[in-house]
Amino acid sequence: MEKPKIVEELKPFFEPKAVAIIGATDKKGKVGNVIFENFKMNKERGIFKGNIYPVNPKLDEIEGYKVYKSVEELPEDTDLAVISIPAKFVPATMKDIAKKGIKSVVIITGGFGELGEEGKRMEQEILEIARENGIRVIGPNCVGVYVPDTGVDTVFLPESKMDRPKSGEIAFVSQSGAFAAAMLDWAAMAGIGISKMVSYGNKLDVDDADLMDYFIHDDATKVVTFYIEGVKDGRKFIESAKRISQVKPVIALKSGRTEYGAKAASSHTGSLAGADTIYDAVFKQTGVLRAEDFEHMFDVAKAFAKCKLPKGDRVGIITDGGGAGVMASDAVAKFGLRMADLSEESLRYLKEKFPPHAVAGNPTDVVGDTDAQRYKYAIEAFVNDPNVDAIVVIVLFQVPLLDEMEIIDILAEYKEKSDKPIVAVAMGGKKTEHYAKILEEKGVPVYPTPERGVRAIAGLVHYAKYLERVKG
Amino acid sequence: MEKPKIVEELKPFFEPKAVAIIGATDKKGKVGNVIFENFKMNKERGIFKGNIYPVNPKLDEIEGYKVYKSVEELPEDTDLAVISIPAKFVPATMKDIAKKGIKSVVIITGGFGELGEEGKRMEQEILEIARENGIRVIGPNCVGVYVPDTGVDTVFLPESKMDRPKSGEIAFVSQSGAFAAAMLDWAAMAGIGISKMVSYGNKLDVDDADLMDYFIHDDATKVVTFYIEGVKDGRKFIESAKRISQVKPVIALKSGRTEYGAKAASSHTGSLAGADTIYDAVFKQTGVLRAEDFEHMFDVAKAFAKCKLPKGDRVGIITDGGGAGVMASDAVAKFGLRMADLSEESLRYLKEKFPPHAVAGNPTDVVGDTDAQRYKYAIEAFVNDPNVDAIVVIVLFQVPLLDEMEIIDILAEYKEKSDKPIVAVAMGGKKTEHYAKILEEKGVPVYPTPERGVRAIAGLVHYAKYLERVKG
């Protein structure tokens, strides 16, 4: 696929040769200080490979870094500017940036369109300068960009306030800055890896459609997630969404669904939420999966990042707790999937291998006195059974005879070699969290409830069916 | 209210004078050993105050405890027997227990009705002995009873496999033993306090209705939660549910809702799940709140344990992140509640106290540069506003100027002195979890997403409306 212009245009946001931090300061805790510290720290860690140029007319030096008095003075390799000076100074600075030939700008500063007419006028002025000079702008009123792989981090909340997630296959785009920050913090704890995060705030220039077009060609990204309050250019969104859905899945959490939510959204980002049924129709038409809430969004994203796509909607469930198997079966119906009918061969094999009190079937209940070997028989039968398209393995690690590391290795092995998606469900406390983390590091997505595990599979099935529909 | 017979009958299960552990052994990891160790450890910790009598014909002594050769030899103060010997020996042991005059028996042993006809015959024999001799039986095929306050702990998974939750106001009853174990483990991690846990397995004698009648009079219990796959005696269930709902709320997670789930339930506990619409009708008629999944069940239970009941369904939302406010507003509509219209006075007060970029309204957005004081103005206005019945305070602890301990203390103070329910929502990672835990210890329930916080409020409103309907 030929790479469109947007790929080159957005590249400096994610891997700049040199970043100018306009409004950098030595005052701890200030936005311009935190952003400078982020880049400096990532440079010291060897992650950020570019140059760092603080800009501030009142300073000569910050922590050993030369400070530039003006944009004009900046070295020629500067290809990204991050602005955190007060709103009223931004238009003039944009002119300097244009003159300097810098083509990528993140405007962190708030106090524009969201505050009224004067702010809207300034936004218009900035946009005109950008358009006339081929400059792409992320923001204003945003937390900007975070890329674990390249060390770009304009998130102005210091690491003492907010953890950063590790590198991974999920791109995350958010219209809300605070939500983006909370999500990054949460993803770090949940062990969810991020390829790129973009929080675009007032979405003056770079928008969802641009980012989708970029992510089509971004090898680091396997799945794209969006938190959206409103889309400005519906037609552009639809075209880009259709394009990317051919190649990788998109999951959107669109809030402002209800009258109450729409009203709140309009006073938050000024978004016209629009009739929710229109969004539903657009998402359906373009293959975008609509998430109910952020847990749903990342549950499904994790499955896309780690799993193969299923060939159909027939789910097989293996459990060591009967109750959890019942809940998972209910979830299969609730999320519009089918329970697989195991083949005669699978049933015969399991009955031969199982003690009389274990239950061969779907769900297969290896019961509370199971060891890892009994799970292995079940997983093997399900993996080989042509009637099973996707597998949910519920592991209550609490049962007394189950060697935790043994079942983890079995799951990781079959997940790797099978061409079916396999997800795990583990309910419990601290020990369960510990083992779940190890299992995820070995490539198996783990969910805390049967419902969430099955719902993640439903996301895979939804997308696989979309691909089938549009491709053949 | 006069205490019914059941209160005295079930008392020995929860606070026995002396427990006989029939099948106690010194073989580490065996069921009879873990249960003995649980009681012994809790005795050493000073929690279990009763006597412990291991019973095993082949041993003289276990870890300094005298072992009784038979039930007949047991001291006269024995008022609870816990049985973990093989199924085939249980009927004869029940006869000995009857002769000895012990009236409370937990049968941990599995291999009865769930395995077929011979098991059902033995169950019938046990039931006849129990009925003839006024013995109450919990089980068989269960993990039994856990009471943090009295140190009763028949859960045969050692603490190395499964953590135990602290003491609290929530009673938890489970038809599934493995689910009960996973839930206790999870509750321990989540900081959820349990008054009493009962896992009754095949529900031969003591059932949901008996337990509801007991919990009506149990001062330690403020709210009762059930995991149920099927109810045997519908009329008895309805009568008891109606009685307890007058006094304290009941939340039920009834699985086997769908055809798939019902089929799985029948092979798990042999439960006839029955038409789900019937359960829906029964729960509605009796004021029992139906939970979607275990997170929903404990989310709402936590709110009941900590909050006052609302006088109406008008919700007020305070947030420092606009996006989270939009999501919470959507949730208010989704869960059938109303957004409160703030009074003119509240709006005037907030506009006077707020900087121009903060948003007075519902949601009130104190925005990302908030300090704790700005939250305090908002909470005060909402607490005093006659148009607000319940309050959801979203705190993204990541924002830079918010002193975490200050906002925690403000929330705890207003939650305590207001007659309205107040819940908090905190999204984020490890630091957020840390502060959320402190906030919960100070009595404010905290939820990880706006949806779950609002849904918990919806549970309170649902029950408050039921009480209003049946009482006035």
CATH class of the largest domain in chain A: Alpha Beta
Widest beta sheet: strand line-up of chain A: 9-8-11-10-12-13-14
For the report, how would you describe the main beta sheet of chain A? 7 strands, mixed
Strand content of chain A: 15-25%
What gap, in angstroms, lies between the N and C termini of chain A?
19 Å
Counting DSSP H or I runs of 4 or more residues, the number of helices of chain A is 16
Radius of gyration of chain A: 25 Å
Instruction: Find the CATH superfamily of the largest domain in chain A.
Output: Succinyl-CoA synthetase domains
* Total number of domains of chain A: 2
- What is the general shape of chain A? elongated
Low-pLDDT runs of chain A:
none
Look up the CATH topology of the largest domain in chain A.
Rossmann fold
Largest interface (CB < 8 Å): A-B, 81 and 83 residues
Strand element count of chain A: 20
Q: Please give the share of residues in helix of chain A.
A: 40-55%
CATH architectural grouping of the largest domain in chain A: 3-Layer(aba) Sandwich
- Looking at how many chains there are and whether they match, the oligomeric state comes to homodimer
